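It would be a great kindness if you could assist me with a short task in structural biology. A protein sequence and the C-alpha cells that stand for its backbone fold form the material at issue. I should value your view on which stretches of the chain appear to form regular backbone elements. The record follows directly beneath this note.
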Amino acid sequence: MKYILSIDQSTSSTKAIIFDEQLNLVGRSNVEHNQIYPQAGWVEHDPNEIFNNLLKACSDVFNTTGVQKENVVCLSISNQRETAMLWDKKTGEPIYNAIVWQCCRGESISSKPHIIKEAETIRQKTGLVLSPYFSAAKVAWILENIDCKNKNIAFSTMDSWLVYKLTGNHYCDYTNACRTQLFNINSLEWDKDIIKLFGLENISFPQIKCSDEIFGETNLGGLLNKPIPIAGILGDSHGAIFGQQCWNPGEGKCTMGTGSSLMINIGDKPQFSNSGLATSIGWKLKNDIKYVFEGNVNSSGDTINWLIDNMQILPNSKESESYAQKVESTEGVYLVPAFTGLGAPHYKSNARAVIWGMNRSTNKYHIVRAALESIVYQIKDVMVPMVKEANIEFKELRVDGGPTNNKLLMQIMSDILDVNIIKNSIEELSALGAASVGAIATGIIKDKDALSKLRRTGETYNNCMSPEKREEMYNGWKTVVNKL
C-alpha cells in the first residue's frame, strides 16, 4: 500500500494527515501554534515555530498510525494564504514574524495616496480589491518598520517558507502567488510594476510552479531514511475546491475554519467583479487552469473561539450547538464579529465588532446563537453578489472544515442561504485536495476522471425556513452592518 503525507498548515495549527492510495484518511496529528497579538487588530505567527510543529506533527502521525515510512511516496501541502514574511537569504532566518492574513496593520501602506491612485489597475491585474489583508501591504510594512539593512531579503508565502525549510528551494505555487496582490493573473507572473509600487523591487521572489510539479525532495529533517518528493501544493481554499471536485463552471464550495472562503469555479478565463469579490486562480496544473470568484469571511470559527477565550461564556466549540439550541431564536440579537475589520465584500478594515439588539432578557445562549448566525450572514454577504455576477443559480453548496460538524450551524446555513448544503464525509478537504494533486503528480492516480470515482459525500441539509422569515433576519443583519 502506498501513502501520501499531506500537511495542512492553517491559521491555528499544523496538521499532518496520511491518506492511502484510494485517498482514505488513515490518520492525522495536529499541533497548534501561538497566536501573537502585538496590539489591537494585529496578528502574527512565528515561522520557525510553525516549521518545527510540522516536523512534530509528521513524527506523531507516523507513531499513531503505524504506517511504515518507506511506503510514503510524496509530501503534499495546503496552507493559510495571504500570510506572508521576509527572511534573510544569508542566514535563512525570518527578519520578522509572519504577518497573518487577518492582520490589518497594512492599512498604513494600502492607504497611501500613490497606491490608492492605482487601485483599479491593481484590481485588473491581480483580481484583488486593494486591501491590507493581502500580502503586499504586509511585507511593505515590514520593510518600512523593521531594520533590514545589510540583509539579502527574500519574500515567502507560507508554502514557500515550508518548501525552503524542507528543501532549500525558493518556490511557491500559483494559487498562493495569486493571493499576494503582487501577481498578475492575466500574464501569470509576478507583476514588476505593482512590486515597485509597494517598494518591494529589491527583494527576491520565489519561482512559481504548477501545483502538480515537483518542488524538491525532503527527508523531513531526518525523520525519513529516504527523501520523498514534494508535490501537490495549493492554498487551503484552493485545495478544498479541488478536493470537493468543483471542476465545472458554476460549482462552488465553502471552506469553514478560523474564517470562511466561499469560492465558485468560473472557467478557464478570468472574469472581474464589480462587487468586491476576488478573482483568483482556482488551481493551475501543468495542463489545466481554472479561475474562481471568491469572497473571504474574516471570522467564523474564530468568533466561537472568542466566546470561549475572551467572553468565557462557552466551555468549548462543541458545546456551541447545544447552547444555541437552548433558545429558539436570538430574539433580535446580532453579533457582527469585526474583530479585525470586515472582509469581502465590505473590506472595512477599521470596522469593529458589536453585539446589537440586546435587552434585559438576553442571555449567553442568545449570544452563542447570534455568533453561529453571524457566520452564515457573512457568507450570504458574499454569495449574493457572487450569484449575480457569475450569472448562476446556486442549488447546492459543498462545505468542509471543522465548523461543518455543527449540525445546527449547517441547518441555519441552508435556511439563510436557501440552498442545499452538502457536507463531505472527509473533514480535511484542503489536505485532501493537495493529496489528490500529489497523487496525480506521482502517478498514484491517473487523472481527474479517476479521482471523480473516489468522491465521497456526507449529510445533506435542506432549507426549512419561509422566504419572509429569511428576508426579515437578513435585513436585520444588513441594518447593523451598515451602521459600522
Summary: The two ends are 55 Å apart (CA to CA). The first helix runs from residue 47 to 65. The first strand starts at residue 3 and ends at 9. The chain has two domains: 3-236, 245-423+454-484.
